[in-house]
Design a protein that fits this description.
Layout: H1 2-11, H2 14-46, H3 49-85, H4 89-116, H5 118-124, H6 132-144, H7 146-154, H8 156-161, H9 165-189, H10 193-217, H11 234-307, H12 311-338, H13 340-345, H14 352-365, H15 369-384, H16 388-409, H17 411-414, H18 416-450, H19 454-462, H20 466-469
Helix pairs in contact: 2-3, 2-9, 2-10, 2-11, 3-4, 3-6, 3-7, 3-11, 4-7, 5-6, 6-10, 7-10, 9-10, 11-12, 11-14, 11-15, 11-16, 12-15, 14-18, 15-16, 15-18, 16-18
């Protein structure tokens, strides 16, 4: 079975491979992103603009919870895959057990810290006195259910590690579907407001978590969860955290960026601008997730063929992924310009002022999104070929290297307009950096392709007559 997979990666049409690998990733990432988008749609239409601002204030904290899930989930998944490949099923089960323990303890610890310092934390995240009560109602309940989200997302990766992506996809679909149903019931029928949206989120995550744990407990899984393996072992945990730390750091950086963005908008544009950026980011998420899915789909194809020295296929996969990602981003760009008010209207039914500022902000903030596909795919390329330094630079370039400094500088000259303009300028700089790095990478790849492989060199030497290989004296 493994051999067939390898032959496909080497010989199958790149277009077919990219489609097969990208589609599940696109579906998974879109569904994952729907939690925040759905919350904003329902609270915006059912409560108002201050409610959208409250979810924007809560967003950095939700990124932190996501970072914890990725920290443990990604690291454990990599180790589980390796141990299963080595035939060490018992060790894989120990890793899974330790990971489950940390997926409970770490979000519980984060929630405890939040409840001690909830008001100053939310103010630090950009909550004004008007927004603070809404943010408190929403975030306190989200933190109460933090463990459910951590298990449903983190442990769902273990299912993928077993080679069962369909079951993993069902986990995400189930959670998103229940979130929609519960949001409608709790907000529009029960009238629970912000608390209703938060309860909808954590109940949907609880159902997803039960689905994931049920998969492992009921005997359907290859890796079993056993009580004896839940006791933390530092040797196992250190390996998990070492692998997951890079992704964890990127998410924490994203949370810091969001805090700076929120506070800048509150200072220069008030609560209405904060609500606007919440809507803009929700729409941007729906546009970027398919591009990220294409990049994730390309990653194993690029990595395998790079290791196999099939450099032409490596370059062709990158080019095709760039074309696909750019095409998706271009479709989104056209949709923004054809139906801007309608897209914003999904979140706000009758607030004319919010619709006006959001439409204006969105068209500036996402002015260069057709170029972003290139940057995302290029960053993923370096991850795929094992060049961690280049991958880290490109992954952090837009948010940390460019966007945060621009957020600090530009509003001093242009006010809230400087916030909107910071995004396309950061996009342009990040794409320029990506293009420069990929130019030299592709040139290096062509040179490497022209060199004979070690096997070819050995074969060439074996054809030289023995006398020519010896010294002249002989």
């Amino acid at each position: 079975m493994m051999m067939d997979h390898s032959l496909e990666m080497r010989d199958k049409s790149i277009g077919r491979l990219l489609w097969n690998f990208s589609l599940p990733a696109i579906v998974g990432m879109l569904v994952n992103s729907l939690y925040n988008v759905i919350d904003r749609i329902f609270v915006g239409r059912g409560i108002g603009s201050l409610a959208i601002a409250a979810t924007t204030v809560a967003f950095p904290l939700m990124i932190v919870l996501l970072a914890v899930s990725i920290f443990i989930g990604v690291g454990a998944t990599a180790l589980i895959s390796i141990r299963l490949g080595e035939g060490k099923k018992e060790e894989a089960e120990k890793i899974a057990g330790n990971a489950i323990t940390m997926l409970v303890l770490l979000p519980a610890l984060a929630a405890g810290v939040f409840f001690i310092f909830s008001e100053p934390i939310l103010i630090a995240c950009g909550a004004s006195p008007e927004v603070l009560p809404y943010a408190m109602d929403f975030t306190q309940i989200i933190m109460l259910g933090a463990v459910f989200g951590s298990i449903s997302l983190g442990a769902n990766n273990f299912i993928r590690a077993e080679g069962n992506p369909k079951v993993a996809m069902y986990t995400q679909l189930i959670g998103a579907a229940f979130n929609v149903v519960f949001n409608y019931i709790f907000i529009f029928i029960f009238g629970w407001g912000m608390k209703g949206s938060a309860f909808a989120t954590i109940l949907a995550q609880a159902i997803s978590a039960a689905w994931v744990l049920g998969y492992f407990i009921t005997g359907r899984s290859l890796v079993k969860l056993r009580l004896v393996n839940l006791r933390p072992r530092w040797v196992i945990l250190s390996g998990i955290m070492a692998i997951g730390f890079g992704q964890f750091a990127m998410q924490i950086a994203a949370s810091v960026q969001q805090v700076i963005l929120n506070n800048t908008l509150t200072a220069y544009g008030g609560d209405l601008a904060l609500s606007a950026i919440g809507i803009v980011m929700s729409i941007a998420t729906l546009l970027f997730m398919p591009v990220l899915g294409v990049a994730q789909g390309a990653q194993p194809i690029i990595g395998y063929n790079y290791g196999a020295r099939q450099y032409k296929r490596v370059g062709d996969t990158w080019k095709l992924a760039v074309i696909a990602g750019t095409g998706i981003a271009l479709i989104g760009y056209l949709a923004l310009h054809i139906w801007p008010e309608q897209l914003v209207g999904l979140f706000s039914e009758s607030d004319v002022a919010l619709t006006a500022i959001t439409t204006h902000a969105m068209l500036i903030y996402m002015a260069l999104i057709p170029l972003v596909g290139f940057q995302i795919v290029s960053a993923t390329y370096f991850q795929a070929v094992g060049k961690a330094r280049q991958a880290a630079v490109l992954s952090l370039s837009r948010q940390v290297l460019f966007f945060i400094p621009l957020l600090v500088i530009l509003p001093r000259f242009w006010g809230v307009e400087g916030v909107w303009r910071a995004a396309p300028i950061a996009d342009f700089l990040a794409v320029s950096l990506s293009a420069t790095m990929m130019y030299y990478e592709m040139r290096s790849l062509r040179k490497e392709a022209a060199r004979p492989s070690p096997e070819e060199q050995s074969a060439a030497l074996s054809t030289i007559p023995p006398k020519l290989c010896g010294s002249e004296s002989e």
